Amino acid sequence: MCRWPGHCMGFGSGCAWGSLGGPVNYNWNWGIFWEQTPEATGTYFASLMSGLGVTIALALCAWIIAFVVGSFIGIIRTLPSKWPVRLGNAYIEMFRNIPLLVQLFIWFFVVPELLPQDLGTWIKQLRNGPFVTAMIGLGLYMSSRVATQVTAGINSLPKGQRMAGTAIGLTTFQTYRYILLPLAYRVIFPPLTSEFLNTIKNTAVALTIGVLELTARARSMQEFSFQVFEAFTAATVIYLALSAVVTIGMRYAEKSLVIPGFNGGKA
Amino acid sequence: MFADFDFNVIWRSLPYLFREGMTFTLTLTAIATVGGLILGTLVALMRLSSNAVLSTFAASYVNLMRSLPLVLVIFLFYFLMPYIGQWILRADAPVQVGAYTSTIITFTLFEAAYFSEIMRAGIQSIPRGQVMAGYAIGLNYREVTRHVVLPQAFRNMLPVIFTQTIVLFQDTSLVYVLSITDFLGAASKVAQRDGRLTEMYLFAAVVYFAICFTASFFVKRLQKRISIIR
Hints:
heterodimer; A: mainly alpha; MetI-like fold; B: mainly alpha; 8 helices
């Protein structure tokens, strides 16, 4: 049942130590990054960089889904009527209480089976199947977290804001669009930043369904070259750099979004 | 769509799933929670200490762990540990560390970073006046920390600690990448052996959901009770 690359990759992990015996010292070789990979598609450095590209692309695509769906769910949980709130709560419980890995497996292995046969087959044969699946799975998983933040943000606003909207004759939609949401998103900007960082980190789980992102690339580099430390040090440094860039970028973005006189902005 | 759904495969594999799989999942969760909490408290105390070396070390450790994906850390430690063992034990060859031992150590060290942030928030939530009062009646740092600060910090943070444990419980499924037989690993092995991916993965999802949903329900209740006490 191993039709997909990566799904069973864990099973060989122990082999690196199986044949070791006698005094063994680790041979450092930082030049390894400039050597060719066995697939002869380029250097190990290029392979890691392509992994970084996939990680960034996957994180951004998943984030768009998480943000759009999460905002929708978060907003309906603050509506005055009962049913949207219940629906939103159920959605969040559903996606928050199942591990991400299990959710990815369900999107990847189970959902195509449950769809009408033609559609399922078409999905299985998609060239970017693993990437698209990971994008949807990760996006929806993160959307439940975004939704929690959006709800918290809207509820943190003074009640007067909503009432003022109603008082000047805005519809519910207009109140959200012009009053509540612009304020709420600014309030939750810092937690949303950390959810985006979580999205980047969670992309690594996608290697289990065969997405060749950064961790998968580091792992295959380790497997082919036996340069464990170099491979994983490089991946570590890249992840650290990535999260530093995002953190700094978001700090600037947050500053530029401040409304004078509101939320700590200088009047 | 459930026409050719084979419930029997789930029924047949129940003993394997729970006796082998879930046992490891729960063991790993328990050890990593307790170990991570103890280590994390120490790291939090280091981070809040006035010693610059200690606090810098603690801060870098926490920030490093928190910016890396758990999957990467699992791989990293799995491949790193034999060499660290060799270095510590002054052995001739890399020490064989099994996948099980390796994940237990990995999760403890990784979760310590997250628990330390929780404990730091808990410690900082205790008014400074209490610490000063402790010193005023002649207690030393150790006694103030042990008898005044930590019990309250721990109690205030109890709901957050349990929530983190639920997250940890879900994250243990990632040991799949080392092909360990945790609950998901067991489900996936049966799924692949019998070609019953749909049934097994859906069942795994249902079980995880039931456990986490129940647990977070009780955490919410605990939170309400504690907030009244305060």
